[in-house]
Amino acid sequence: ETGVTQTPRHLVMGMTNKKSLKCEQHLGHNAMYWYKQSAKKPLELMFVYSLEERVENNSVPSRFSPECPNSSHLFLHLHTLQPEDSALYLCASSRAYDKANYGYTFGSGTRLTVV
Amino acid sequence: DQQVKQNSPSLSVQEGRISILNCDYTNSMFDYFLWYKKYPAEGPTFLISISSIKDKNEDGRFTVFLNKSAKHLSLHIVPSQPGDSAVYFCAASALGGGNKLTFGTGTQLKVEL
Description:
The structure holds two protein chains of two kinds.
Chain A: E1 4-7, E2 10-13, E3 18-25, E4 31-37, E5 44-50, E6 53-57, E7 64-70, E8 73-79, E9 87-94, E10 105-106, E11 110-114
Parallel strand pairs in A: 2-11
Antiparallel strand pairs in A: 1-3, 3-8, 4-5, 4-9, 5-6, 7-8, 9-10, 9-11
Chain B: E1 4-5, E2 10-14, E3 19-25, E4 30-38, E5 45-51, E6 56-59, E7 62-67, E8 72-77, E9 86-94, E10 102-103, E11 107-112
Parallel strand pairs in B: 2-11
Antiparallel strand pairs in B: 1-3, 3-8, 4-5, 4-9, 6-7, 7-8, 9-10, 9-11
């Protein structure tokens, strides 16, 4: 399968649960990203991995924990979330991180609801 | 502080007419700009981009204009088609800032028959 695949598509979790979001790309890209989209807000960059090394961590609370075991996979581990963390979580990849003119390929997102 | 602004949350246009979506930015270090299109239940998809060394880039029915002095860009779609109905995001990246995109809040375009 080509493109960027995110699972699950929808997730409902309690505030005491632990869950993980998964992202997979088969494009041969070297950079992967997590973005958060809340209602009526712009997409907010959370984390960036370049060649499996985290290069950006945008003041994200520690209840969000990313993991990039290889260049094709990216995870976002979630624990003790708050209702305000409910949002669409988008994964993206790009050919590289060092140049600013590589566009992103996005996944379809995981719609997260924290109850 | 929002560095990329799309002040019109929605736009309605008749089929066949021109759609003009606007975007303003505040960071003078931005040097590459992109437009993404998003349908419901799908991720954003790349539409068109422009480098700061240009003031216009065209791809079929889509044209992006950049006015650096005004820190303004616009996306023109002509002629508009019902399949163009989607949310359009403006994004920008900064020189030396890596491939890190800053997005606007999006404009919902509705093309009516």
